[in-house]
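ingest -> validate -> predict -> emit
validate: passed (alphabet ok, no gaps, 308 aa)
predict: started
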Amino acid sequence: MTEQATTERAVAIRRGTLDDSHQAFDVFLAAITDLSARIGAPWDPQPEEMWPRVEPMFQMLADHAAEWWVAEGDDGRLAGYARSIERGGLFELSEFFVRPDHQSSGIGRELLDRAFPAGRGEVRAIIATIDMRAQASYYRSGTAARFPLMSLLGVPGARTGGGRVDVRLESVAATPDEIPQLQELERVTIEFDRGEEMRWLVEQRHGFLYRRAGRAIGFGFLAPRGGIGPVAALDPADMPGILDHLERLAAELGIEEISADVPGPSQAAIQHLLARALRFDTFITLFMSSRPFGSFDRFIGFAPPFVL
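emit:
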């Protein structure tokens, strides 16, 4: 693999650097705004307001990238980028976006071949949009759609029910000392853990380790703007209790809206959130992998759903 190549449209393919983060964000916004309009779920983001909120996440994805490639025009403007992350044997495509005016030009394939090379990883995974052109590329890369991720939104505290929540569930604020326990819980639920990314979560988000009678049974994280995830429970029946605690915290913090991208198999979590008056968003994503793995009836991934 060469460090640099050129497409027919005179766009250079090179490795990404931290200095490319803001332009990568711009590419992401352009691609998702275009896709949202095409599928009948229009989105009107405010880039100036949004960037300061997501900059730490983009930096984390850059810091932990296994591969990061960008397509750059002669004017220095990024036309697209693709990035992956590797956690033990789990090799995951975290981002793959091309500006609408450069799509279907060959740039996407150039980027994907470098960021998500064939044969790499014991298990290959992608959280994918439903763009059919991208889906064709993802199937060619050796993954298949396993289930949808259902996006739910709502006002914290707007309750109409939700079932019994176990009052014996104890929550302890996650600290660096708990990272080995958090990682072990993640390995038990989805076979892999996120390694040093867990430290970033503990430092950047409201994180909790949940216990019952002194035994660790799950964990959960709440982002400053209301994104719920990741969340893991040894027993799916404990998902409602964990989600209830995170929702109550969001209400106490004055967060106006919470959101969670919940795996389709997580019936207990989805039923609980619907009973709490959250609603389905029209924009869904698909979890794709080279083989089935993990117990996704008791797990919610990273928020927003760039990676597991």
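The longest strand covers residues 144-154.
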